[in-house]
Amino acid sequence: MTTKKGETTVTDTFDFVVVGAGSGGCTVAGRLSEDAATSVALLDAGGRNDNWRIATPFGLALPYRPANWAFDTVPQKGLNGRIGYQPRGKGLGGSSAINAMVYIRGHRWDYDHWASLGNAGWSYADVLPYFKRAENNVDFDGDYHGKAGPLHVNRLRSDNPIHDVFHQAAREAQFRIRDDFNEEDNEGLGSYQVTQHHGERWSAARAYVQPHMDKRANLRVETAAQATKILFEDGRAVGIEYVQGRQTKRLRARREVILAAGAFQSPQLLMLSGIGDGDALRTHGIGVVHHLPGVGRNLQDHPDFVFVYASDYPHFVHASISRLPSLLRAIQRYRRERRGPMTTNFAECGGFLKTQSDLEVPDIQLHFVIAMLDDHGRKRHKEAGFSCHVCLLRPKSRGSVWLKSADPLAAPMIDPNFLGDAEDLESMVAGFKTTRRLMETPALRALQKRDMFTADVRSDDDIRSVLRARVDTVYHPVGTCKMGADAMAVVDPALKVHGVQALRVVDASIMPTLIGGNTNAPTIMIGEKAADMIRGEMR
After folding, report:
1. Residue 100 assigned ligand-binding role
2. What residues contact 378, with CB distance under 8 A and at least 6 apart?
3. What is the dihedral of CA 257, 263, 268, 270, to 10 degrees?
4. Which of 34, 81, 147, 349 is the Cys-Cys partner for 166 at CB 3.0 to 4.6 Å?
5. 211 and 335 part of one domain
6. Angle at CA 109, nearest 5°, toward 103 and 111?
């Protein structure tokens, strides 16, 4: 029953209160609520994200602000002082509701590296079962894939002939063609699998939460509910305070509070609640519950450069949706077959390459996009064309997230520190050259009407200059509540926050280092493994 205490509404008590309905939060909430005897509340500041703009993959081309926090960075010293853009998902599904749906796990080396840092239970052999448990892969089977999980994975249904062109270009550049990027090795180029089902986006919410919202009495989902504070009693997390509409409300947690608000907002909420660097918290008038200096540190993201070309090729998408050739036919086909251009994730092809042959693992990733992508699609051009991203997979630069003020509704301050380490710039120069080899193959040269930004870039100094002028995120921030046992670690290998009780973090912020690839599938894996660890402790 609901009671009133001053201006704060105290609502029900649940076994678990999960903050953030992104990839980690949806996964852990969905799995924990499979047990009818376990009650779970899932909170998110956004909406339900159950409309056609989210479900239709082509909706990526249509700005939809209600589902995007649309953060900015602080000025980046390594990028000529530019302010970067950090889109993050808001609402059920989080970033899996607005991303490009590319299904990539990363290299086995990444997880073995986590284990080597002292994180027992996180080696590749340890995490592979959770990737498989999550997955329902239409195309692949065997030792590396699952067929019965809630996350649908399959090849694109766009039927775009550009795939054949891209594969031909890869052969001309003497890169290997890879069919499956999610085996132990992923070097090579090819066509990506996506998190779609019958041509529709299959976010973490559609996989783990939305099918059960009206069926599981033990699962309560609150949208438009922005968490403002973790409640503590004697060093134990006992609930969450949040704002919904004009009301301040509270939910109590019998067992645990689980943070899954992402690499920016999980550390922000910890700091607002008194968990973080004590001196920094006191400058904002925040009482210190536990001094934990690593909160908000260790931010890592893939620095990314985009080659952009104008083209007359008829299968590229124009920036103006109204000019898309055969738009009405494409919509009709989508309604009838759930196939064709409306199913595109735009980043249809790509892969993983080594800039030096003696490297142990690939160090760059490509995303080949069937549209001209300038400033994250925010700058429009009159012509159709294509783009090719190249990102550095394991940058050495480290950034941070901190509080702008004690106002819980204010955006956090975000500093990825792109190209802050001199080695990252030189590695990006090598990545630029490697990617240009592909762009200059006969197969892709034949499609190019005009090189938009790199026609006059020839020397290494030219490359460094254009990189500093145009590099930005490829949307993979991690690491700000890193897992480990060192002085800067925030959570232990069970994802429990050091120094307090009944509080875990279950999202990409716990990654001690960036994985070599897209971060959505690994975050879902983290949610699966967290749920398993929690259930094991409850037995």
Report:
1. yes
2. 85
3. 30
4. 349
5. no
6. 70
Same domain, 282 and 139: yes
- The Cα–Cα gap between 430 and 302 comes to 15
Give pTM, 2 decimals.
0.97
Q: Are 152 and 202 in contact (CB under 8 A)?
A: yes
Structure confidence at residue 7 as a pLDDT band (50, 70, 90): low
Q: 297: which 2 tokens?
A: 């540190």
**CB-CB neighbours of 17 under 10 Å:** 33
Whether residues 335 and 388 share a domain: the answer is yes
Binding site annotation covers 160? Answer: no
What is the overall mean pLDDT for the chain?
96
Please tell me whether residues 181 and 324 are part of one structural domain: yes
Residue 450: give the domain boundaries: 157-191+303-392+420-470
Question: pLDDT at position 312, please?
Answer: 94
- Is 102 annotated as contributing to ligand binding? yes
Residue labelled with tokens 């090729």: 313
User: Does 99 belong to an annotated binding site?
Assistant: yes
Assign residue 38 the CATH number of its domain: 3.50.50.60
430 Cβ contact partners less than 8 Å away, ≥ 6 residues apart:
355, 356, 364
476 given a catalytic annotation? yes
Statement to judge: residues 456 and 477 lie in one domain:
no
Q: Of 167, 197, 476, 498, which residue is the catalytic one?
A: 476
Q: Is residue 413 part of a domain?
A: no
Let me know whether 144 and 91 are in one domain.
yes
